C-alpha cells in the first residue's frame, strides 16, 4: 500500500442508495403537498399553482444541489463543494482533520453517527461532505487524509497559534455540550424524586406548586445542563 499522497485523489459523494432514498422522499413529499393544496376548497388557483411551481423548483434545486455536493482530495488541497458555495483548503493551511460525533444522529435514524471536519487557517471547522460512517470507512479514509496532510503540508509547516487556540476553544465547547447533555440525562431520575414528594407528604401550597413536573423538569434540566456545560468549558479552557 502506498503512502498517503500516493492514494490520492479521493472523492466522496452521495451513495446511489441514498440518492434514491432522497429522490423518493422529495417525490413523496411533493405529491403530498400537491394533493393537499389541490383538495383544499378555500385556496384559489392564483395561489395554488404558483406555490406548486415554486415548490417543485425548490425541491428540484435541493436534489440537484445535494448531488453536486462532494469532498475531493488531491495533491494540492481538499476541495469542499457544499450546496451553495465551494471552499479550497490547501494542505499547508489545514490545521487539523478530526472525526466528531453528529448531534443530529440522536434525532434521525438515517443520519450518520460521525462526521469529519477539517480546520482551516482561520481555525474554523469545515464539514467534509459525505465523509461519514454512512458512506465510507471513516477510520480508513481519515487515516489516508491525515497521512497525506502530513506529507504534503511541507517540512516547515507549523500550526498557526491563533487557529490552534480557536480549535482548542471549539473542542472545549463541544466537550462541554456533550457533558452537559450526558449529565442532564442522568439528572432526570433524581429530579423526579421531588415531583413525587407531594404524593406522600403534605406540602405548603406554594411548595406544592413549585414541585409540579412542568416546573421541576422545565427549570431543573436546563439549569443542570447550563451549570455542567459552563463548568466543563471553564475547566477545559483553564487546563488547556
UniProtKB/TrEMBL annotation:
Residue spans crossing the bilayer: 21-40, 46-63, 176-201, 213-233
Domain of life: Bacteria
Pfam families: bPH_6 (PF10756)
Keywords from the named record: Membrane, Transmembrane, Transmembrane helix
Domain Low molecular weight protein antigen 6 PH: residue ranges: 68-129
Entry protein name: PH domain-containing protein
Amino acid at each position: 500500500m502506498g503512502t498517503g499522497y500516493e492514494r490520492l485523489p479521493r472523492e466522496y459523494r452521495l451513495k446511489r442508495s441514498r440518492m434514491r432514498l432522497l429522490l423518493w422522499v422529495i417525490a413523496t413529499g411533493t405529491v403530498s403537498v400537491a394533493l393537499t393544496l389541490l383538495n383544499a376548497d378555500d385556496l384559489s388557483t392564483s395561489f395554488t399553482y404558483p406555490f406548486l411551481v415554486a415548490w417543485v423548483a425548490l425541491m428540484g434545486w435541493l436534489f440537484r444541489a445535494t448531488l453536486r455536493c462532494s469532498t475531493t482530495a488531491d495533491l494540492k488541497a481538499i476541495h469542499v463543494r457544499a450546496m451553495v458555495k465551494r471552499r479550497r483548503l490547501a494542505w499547508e493551511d489545514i490545521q487539523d482533520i478530526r472525526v466528531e460525533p453528529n448531534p443530529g444522529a440522536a434525532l434521525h435514524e438515517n443520519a450518520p453517527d460521525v462526521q469529519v471536519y477539517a480546520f482551516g487557517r482561520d481555525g474554523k471547522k469545515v464539514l467534509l461532505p459525505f465523509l461519514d460512517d454512512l458512506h465510507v470507512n471513516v477510520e480508513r479514509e481519515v487515516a489516508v487524509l491525515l497521512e497525506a496532510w502530513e506529507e504534503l503540508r511541507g517540512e516547515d509547516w507549523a500550526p498557526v497559534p491563533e487557529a490552534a487556540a480557536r480549535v482548542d476553544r471549539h473542542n472545549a465547547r463541544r466537550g462541554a455540550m456533550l457533558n452537559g447533555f450526558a449529565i442532564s440525562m442522568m439528572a432526570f431520575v433524581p429530579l423526579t424524586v421531588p415531583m413525587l414528594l407531594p404524593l406522600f407528604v403534605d406540602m405548603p401550597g406554594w411548595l406544592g406548586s413549585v414541585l409540579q413536573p412542568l416546573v421541576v423538569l422545565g427549570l431543573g434540566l436546563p439549569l443542570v445542563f447550563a451549570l455542567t456545560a459552563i463548568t466543563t468549558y471553564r475547566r477545559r479552557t483553564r487546563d488547556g
